[in-house]
Amino acid sequence: MKLLLKVIVLSIATFVSQEGFAAIKPHGATPEEAAAARETNSSHHREVDFFEGNGSPHRAPDVNGIRATHSPVPDDHEFAYVLMSGSDDGVQEIRDLRRLVASNLPANVKLVILTTVDSAASIRSRYEAWIPANRLILATDNSSHNENGLWARDSFPVPVLDNETKTATLVAHDYFRPFDSFKAIAKAVSGQMELRSEVFVGGNLLADKKGNCFSVDSDRLFDMSPSEIQAIYGCASIHMLDHVAGIGDVDEVIKPLGDNTMLTNQASYVDQLKSLGYNVIMLPDAGGEYRTYANTLIVGKTVFMPAFGTNKDQVATKVYEDLGYKVVPVRSNYMSDQLNGSVHCQTMAYPAIKKQDLLHGLGLRELAE
Length: 369
Prior knowledge:
- The strands form six sheets. Strands 3-2-11-9-8-4 form a six-stranded mixed sheet. Strands 21-5-6-7-22 form a five-stranded mixed sheet, with helices on both faces. It has a three-stranded mixed sheet with strand order 12-13-14, covered by helices on one side.
- Helices cover 20% and strands 26% of the residues.
- Strand 13 (212-217), helix 5 (226-233) and strand 14 form a beta-alpha-beta unit.
- By secondary structure, it is α/β, with parallel strands linked by helices.
- The protein has a single domain (8-366), classed as L-arginine/glycine Amidinotransferase, Chain A.
- The protein has nine helices and 22 strands.
- It is globular and about 50 Å long.
- The protein has helices spanning 31-41, 92-104, 120-127, 152-155, 226-233, 270-275, 312-322, 333-339, 355-361, and strands spanning 8-9, 48-51, 57-60, 70-72, 81-85, 110-114, 136-140, 158-162, 168-174, 183-184, 193-199, 206-207, 212-217, 237-242, 254-257, 261-264, 279-282, 297-299, 302-307, 326-331, 348-350, 365-366.
């Protein structure tokens, strides 16, 4: 029987003008998107394709028969790449986020910008004003209509570390929002990639350095069970938090740092987190349903933190600075209030992987100058 390969659906958002505001879709799923995702996840025979180093796949038919050979990458890992869509759809805050990330990445980190062939020249010119050319990688998957690429954390594969070699591999999951871009069937990324049929969003999974995982028990799980998440991503343990704020992703409400430090903006979580052995530090309530100082991108000792133009920005900044981080504030009023997502949601970070393996695994090709 012919092997049916699952695909990673990748989106490269087309750069459009100010009139393109309608192209931006809010972070959360619509009721129709959520219902379709739950229907997908209700299957009793979920499919997994494993791609080994020679590109040959083999199939595991059910998640219950899978034992992960990897562990999740913690959110404060030493990353080598940061990935973003090149699109800003004319929204100044989104453009500023990209400028601030590009301008402030540590010198050993490269920036991968996803764009289209037609937009490459203008994107390269813009970004080379912010980051040296030898640290900028422009990539495309030849798509021409990719309005769904803004939320990179949801759509791109999640990095994991092989338990024996400690090298980075990827676990790819379906996204609740269809892409009209090129559908890439990936081969190996540093030896192995898993392509899974479950719908899952990367913003609802965080791990500490010991492999302990956290998710919010919200409709953003699309009926995935904690045991399934633990099995898929190789979590040492899985801890569910009540949905008390935001759209229901864990990266809105906590930030694990190191082995035993946990930041949170929710007082109702403190006892639970302390019972797990964490030194819990409170972030201020940013105000508003979707505003949060936990939705940060951490690269080395630099924190890209949402900011809202209030005195609470300084309070949150001091929390991170007291832990030894340099804070880069990223204004997020429109992104949080209107689009319901912020810095962490629009970025993806990957550990050291050979550039060609990374791009090949993501189904992308580098655009030459």
